[in-house]
Predict the 3D structure of the following.
Amino acid sequence: MKIGILGNCQTAGFVASLNALAPGHELTVVRLDTNDRNGDLEAHASNLSACDLLLTQPVHDAPSGPLRTDLLVPRAHRALIFPAFSFRGFHPDRLIYQGTTGSATRGPTDPCHSAIVMACFLEGLSPQRAIRLFNAFTYASLGYFDAYEGDLQQATAMLAKYEVSFDEVLRRASRYFMHSPVHPRIEIIFGIAKATLQRAGLPVRDAAVPDDTFVEPSKWPVYPEIAERLGIAGSLEFECHFKTRDLPTMVEQAYAAYATWTRFEPVPVVERARNFLREQGLGTPVAPIRLAPALTPQDVKQAYRLILGRECERDEVAEFHAKAFPTLAQLREVLLRSKEFQITVRPYLSQP
Amino acid sequence: MLNPYSGRPDGSFWRRAVAIAPADVDPVGAAKFLIAASDKIATAGSCFAQHISRTLVRQGFDYLVTETGPPERGFGTFPARFGNIYSPAQLLQLFRRAYGLFEPTEEAWTRPDGRLVDPFRPQVEPQGFATIEALRADRDQHLAAVRRMFEDCDVFIFTLGLTEAWRSTKDGAVFPLAPGVAAAPDHGDIAFHNFTIAEISADLTAFMAAFRAVNPRVRVIFTVSPVPLVATYEDRHVLVSTIYSKSVLRVAAEDVSRNEPSVAYFPSYEIVTGHHTGYRYFDETLRNVTPQGVEAVMGLFSRHYLAASTEAPATPVLPAKPPAAPVRLDPEFAALSAIICDEEAIDS
């Protein structure tokens, strides 16, 4: 059988699991986390929908164009949606920060950041104070100790929608079953793959779990107080691109990096941490100029000029985009991936 | 209508519960919970709290010590080397300092011999510290031990001692001793404060909320020290200040424990100062609690709260009359005298 598979970085583990559980099928794989995304999306959509069975994660973002689930599934002979898995319970403090157009967002653990550290910086606390706030009271106050149980319930409910029993999946998983909030260990992906194949009615053999497909260049630690409650090993060693930093080094380097940033987008987990600091009467917020203002219609008009080379057609369009996109980065991405940009501007960019 | 008191138990009636043989007086009532031999127990508070820790150790209970070292340097008296904690404000601030929430401006005071002391535990290090760096290093590892205590204990027993305190006018930091007693700052930004009932209750409530955040399952026992004030800074008689102080602490302990199943009040104060004792549980200073008084308190504590005590509960034995003159110290008393009471230094 020809099987088309579409998904994110978890797709590699899904494919390895499928090959172990149901070998012999002809697979067409498109990954949204690789250069596949920058290729001919329509060609990918055609190849995938030509398969006997399409297995796709839910894809809803506009830049994915014809690979979006609502557009691709109706074109397929037969399609099943399988879940992408995320879980914050081990790393509730970690966030991914992409930043905005033109603003520096580099940091020692780029693109990962600690919400506590970023909040301490924004509230004007010293790096030494930020280091001391890595403790059980802070974690409890920020809900970090509840994150595991909360996400357990979330994940169970989410997987049930795809007829995947999380209890069953966890039975074969190690206690520490995530590399990071969005990178599950192979046992989790294997469990999802097995349930998906069974839902598709394909014969599944009793196979061993394949090797993990994630080679993590960056490892966010499970903080000791959180780890202790979960019965796993804890650490405050931050690995990024195979370089390890202890907590004081990470904090000092993050502070040095943030001092060069010109804008900070509001991020919920950071805002919660800032509120905690204020409730405790700590710190003095740094100059509000560092806080990113909301996108304005003027920003949208300027982006149209710079990226598409024309004026925005109407004020209403600029106002709509200013409300629709929370960050300049997202607006930029949409404009760069638009058909208009691909047709009218991109050809010029590829010329020598 | 029936007399509503007619069905009350004997303990509700003064004649049947207090005006009886002193050894039979038991004001503890039903314990809210029991302490098992496997429970990790931490204690803190005024100097009377040290009697509790000694009894627990002697009876083989798991007395939690998170900061270890030689006893002559103040280790092992309490779980971590924080010395005596007299007021809820001091306890709350210890918690907040341990968790990075409060960084007092006062870091070190200088003794007459030039050595430095930590103003929040001025007597735990007999030699003092030679440098501010040494003081900070010791303080940081001490506060880490305090965090371990709060997070690892199953039972926490806190003895409320005083409402009178000395605190920083800059940030409200509360010190266990007045400036100049053990060491002094080089400025005058410290003032006397006598906490009100509202302040004491608020501090205890805030402490419990914070404590529960890091240790949701902990059981807590509050008790009030029966030891009177060694001196008052109020412009009034020390007896009046003592009764004010103990009354406020007693009410605050009632407030915070009354409706909480896992928070109990243990009547150390009543056992020692109750009418049935005729003040015979105090020695000739009318301040120091005698070994028999301590034994009465701890006997009832063991009987009601220690589920698997390896010792039979002691029966309170009252001396026939107060001792007329100083007597030779027996070993038990010698152990008691090792209790380190910062407050004594005021009157020395």
Observations:
- Chain A is about 45% helix and 10% strand.
- Chain A has two domains: 83-293, 297-350.
- Chain A touches chain B through twelve residues (CB under 8 Å).
